[in-house]
Amino acid sequence: MTKPYLLDFPKVGAPDIGYISVGEVVASIPFEVKRVFWTYHTPESIVRGRHAHHQTAQVLVAVSGRIIVMTELRDGEIQTFVLERPDQGVYIPPYCWHTMQYSHTAVQLALASTLYDATDYIRDYSEFKQA
């Protein structure tokens, strides 16, 4: 199984004109993107996520603000990623428990490898550990 890891997207531009970053399938995103969603205005006291997926892989990007992403694999390996640059993301593979905590100004962009399917979610931590 692949582990979570940081992705750096190309950053083109300059301070006086601004920047653009691009994520291309295969070159920087390790799957075909089938769904895009974003979260915003999440209170800092809220921890989101608290689930894993059977099939879905994701790339999470903090397009604004800061997001702390905690991941855990079924073997117990835990990693913490701090996203605070819009030209960097974190890859979340299937069967990876993950949580996110946001700064008040955070906007998270999520790129997913599958369409939404409620049965793909593992929301019970003990079920995740047994999967």
UniProtKB/TrEMBL annotation:
InterPro entries (alphabetical): QdtA_cupin_dom, RmlC-like_jellyroll, RmlC_Cupin_sf
Short name of any one Pfam family annotated for the protein: FdtA
Domain of life assignment: Bacteria
Sugar 3,4-ketoisomerase QdtA cupin domain location: 6-130
Name recorded for this polypeptide: WxcM-like domain-containing protein
Source organism of the structure: Hymenobacter wooponensis
Lineage: Bacteria, Pseudomonadati, Bacteroidota, Cytophagia, Cytophagales
